[in-house]
């Protein structure tokens, strides 16, 4: 067994550290029941429009409620013959219980023990919101060496501004010593040149095939498999 460890590690947040399917899938199921009770909309019909597979408990790759603006979602819901008003009211007012992909405090601690020197997080949320999520998982400011958020003058995705910002701050001179972990093909692309581009498919929207196709060097079900299935098994 080879144990080659990245010095620099960048995590995407939503769909990687945060389980999108468990966090927001519950919202769609609650909404589907309400729309059935109040408006007679068959639950599977609404779930299909929004892009949620209730049998597999996960969103489809092109899930409407995850990939378009609110105005576009409202239009497409209305076009399907379902009243958009109550759907959008629910979406805008629902306060989810955020579900982490695994025990992040343990994961981050184990990564440090293995020798990872810097750990950063990319988020489309603002920095404060991303920080609150991490704190709720038992992580402190000393556990994370940088957060790039949507409120900064950087775009975490689809540009590589966010990863460049982190790596420059960390004085990373060799991209092959860096790892990016994300649930979207875009994460694999912004990690071009990294020694590891790890795609996760169980907690986000993308399929393993889409992640491999975008240039992933490894694909795992979720970040709980990162150490055993990637770092400790990397040739």
From TrEMBL:
| Pfam entry (one) | Hydrolase
User: Which Gene3D superfamilies does the record associate with it?
Assistant: HAD superfamily/HAD-like, Putative phosphatase, domain 2
Q: Give the UniProt record's GO annotations in the biological process aspect.
A: DNA repair
Coiled coil ranges (UniProt) are: none
Q: Which GO terms describe its molecular function?
A: phosphoglycolate phosphatase activity
| PANTHER family found in the cross-reference section | PHOSPHOGLYCOLATE PHOSPHATASE (PTHR43434)
- Quote the protein name from its UniProt record: Haloacid dehalogenase-like hydrolase domain-containing protein 3
This protein's species is Perkinsus olseni (Perkinsus atlanticus)
